[in-house]
Amino acid sequence: MRSFGNLRIGVRLASGFAMITALLVGTAAVGISRINAVNANTEIILHDRYVKVAHAHTIENAVDRQARDMRTGLVAADPAIVDGEL
After folding, report:
1. Number of domains observed in the structure of the chain
2. Which of 40, 53, 57, 83, by CA, is between 20 and 30 Å from 21?
C-alpha cells in the first residue's frame, strides 16, 4: 500500500474533497436532528406548558378580583357598596 504522499495530486485532492464532503454531510445531519429536537420541545411548551400557565393566570386574576372586592367591601362605608362588592 502506498502512503498518502506517494499518491498522485488528483487522488489526494479527490480524497480530501471526499473527506470534507463527508464532514459537511455529518454536520448537516447533526444540525437537522438538533432542529427536530428543538421543534419537539417547542411543541411541548406550546401545547402543554403554555396552556397550564394561561390557566394559572386566569385563576390568579380571579383571586385578585375577589381580593379587591373583599377589600372594597370591608373599607366602604356605604351599605349599598358593601352589598354590591360582597
Report:
1. 1
2. 40
Rounded CA separation 76/86 (Å): 11
d(CA 45, CA 64): 26
HSE toward the beta carbon, residue 73, CA cutoff 13 A: 11
pLDDT in tens, 64-73: 998 888 888 7
Q: Distance between CA atoms of 19 and 21, rounded to whole angstroms?
A: 5
Range of the structural domain that residue 9 is part of: 4-85
pTM of the model: 0.56
pLDDT tens, position by position, 1-58: 567 677 788 889 999 999 999 999 999 999 999 999 999 999 999 999 999 999 999 9
C-alpha cell at 70: 373583599
Q: Indicate the SS3 state at residue 6.
A: helix
